[in-house]
Amino acid sequence: MSSPWGKIQKPEIPVSFAEIMSEDVARNLQNKENELHRKFLDIGKLDEAGPPILYDTQIDENIPDEVLKAISNDSIESDAAIAQMLQMQFDKEYDDTLKRKEQKLNGTSKVSISLENYKRAPHNFDFESDSEPEEIEDIQDRKDWDRFDTLQKVIDSIPGCGYKVQQNGTLITKHDLVNNGRKNACKLLSFPPEFQTGDGETFDLKLSNKVYNSLKKHSKKEQVRRYRIDTKKEDRATAEFGMDEYTRLLIYKMVNGGLLDSVNGVISIGKEAVIIHVDSNTDFPDVQEPLPKECVLKVFKTTLAEFKRRDQYIKDDHRFKDKIGKKTSKKNINVWVEKEMANLLRLQRVGIKCPKVITVKKHILLMSFIGEKNRPAPKLKDAIMSDADYSIAYEEVKC
C-alpha cells in the first residue's frame, strides 16, 4: 500500500512470554556449553606446577569432599580405586538410611530391632593412599569387641613402675580400687565355661578382691566335684564289668612285664568278680614251674553293688581278722583276694582238683584255666554226667 506521506512500517508481531523464556533458557544453556568446552580445553594443557586437575568441585557438586580429595591425590591413578571410593561413599549413605529407618522403627520401644546385619560398609572409612600403609589402620584392630577389651587396654596402659600420670594431672596406681575391681571382672572370663558368671558387659562391673577370691574358690570346688563324680562313674564300671582304669593299668603291667602274652576276653561275670581268659608266657623266667599256656584272670569288683557283706566271712578267720578294720572297700578287697588264694592253696595241699594259683596283684588273681581251646569246662549245674560220675565227683571233694 503506497502513501504520499512516506513508507509505512509493518507493525511487529507480538511474542508470547513463553517464547521469550524458552529463548532465554536456550541461550543460557548454550553459554554453559561453551564455558564447559572452553574449560575442558584449558584443563588439557599441562601446567608447570604439576599434573592437570581433572575435576573441579564447582562442576561435580554431588561428589563427596573425601572422594574429591582422594581423586586429586597424585598417587591415585587407577579408575578402579576411584570407583571403590565412590562405592564406599554410596554404601555409607545406604547405611545412614538404614540407621534412620531403624531409629524410626524402634522409637521409644523397650524391644529394639537391629538392622546391623543389612549394612554394607564398615563403621570407619579410610580414603588414604595405598602407598602409605603406615597411615592405614586395620578396622579389626581399631575396634574393641566388648567392654572387657577396652578395660584391658586401660589396665595394661599402666607401666611397670606401677603408676601413671593422667592428662588431667591426677596420679593413678595399679592398686586403684576402681581399676582393680574392673580387672577382677575381666578375670571372670578365665573361669570354666560351666561356671555361670552372667553378662557383665552391659554395665560397669567391679569386683573386690574378697568377692573375686570367693568366686574363684567356689569355681575350683565345683570343678573338683565334677571330676569326683566322673571318677565315681569310672569306678562303677568295676561293679559292672570289673575293668576300671586302675584294673586296666595292672593288666597292662602284666603284659608289659612279659607275664602275659595276650588278653582274649571275658568268660564269666559274677556278683563278686569277672573271669577273663588270657594267654601266658610259657618262657617267663621268674617262676618255679613252667606256666600253662591258657590262664584266667579273676578280677574282683572293688565297687560292690551286690555283694556288700564280705567282712562277715573274714572277721572270724584267724588268718585275716587282724587285717580287717576301718578301711575302704578297695583295701578290704585285697584281703578278700588273699583269702581266696589261701583257700585255693589249701585245696591243692589236700589233693582236691582246683585252679592253680600263679600270682596275685592287688585285686587281680591269676590262675590256671580249666578247659581247652579257649572253651571253659562246664559248671556243675550245666555238666551232663551219669550217676557214677556224680558219685566220683562227690568222693573227690568229700572231707
In short:
With 399 residues, the chain is α+β, with helices and mostly antiparallel strands.
List strands and helices in order, with pairings.
Elements: H1 17-43, H2 65-71, H3 79-106, H4 139-142, H5 147-156, E1 163-165, E2 171-173, H6 177-187, H7 209-240, H8 245-256, E3 260-269, E4 273-280, E5 294-300, H9 329-349, E6 357-361, E7 364-368, E8 371-372, E9 375-376, H10 387-397
Antiparallel strand pairs: 1-2, 3-4, 4-5, 5-7, 6-7, 8-9
Catalytic activity: L-threonyl-[protein] + ATP = O-phospho-L-threonyl-[protein] + ADP + H(+); L-seryl-[protein] + ATP = O-phospho-L-seryl-[protein] + ADP + H(+)
Organism: Sitophilus oryzae (Rice weevil)
Enzyme class: transferase
Tally of DSSP β-strands: 9
Sheet with most strands: 5 strands, antiparallel
How many domains make up the 3D coordinates? Answer: 3
Indicate the proportion of strand residues: 5-15%
Overall structural class, as computed from helix and strand content, comes to: alpha+beta
Name the CATH superfamily assignment of the largest domain: Phosphorylase Kinase, domain 1
Provide mean pLDDT, rounded.
Answer: 73
How are strands sequenced across the largest beta sheet? 3-4-5-7-6
CATH architecture of the largest domain: 2-Layer Sandwich
Instruction: Output the CATH topology of the largest domain.
Output: Phosphorylase Kinase, domain 1
Task: Please give the CATH class of the largest domain.
Answer: Alpha Beta
Helix percentage range? 40-55%
The termini sit apart by 173 Å
The H-and-E topology, N to C, reads as HHHHHEEHHHEEEHEEEEH
Protein name: non-specific serine/threonine protein kinase
Keywords: ATP-binding, Kinase, Nucleotide-binding, Serine/threonine-protein kinase, Transferase
Domain RIO kinase: 232-399
GO molecular function: ATP binding; protein serine/threonine kinase activity
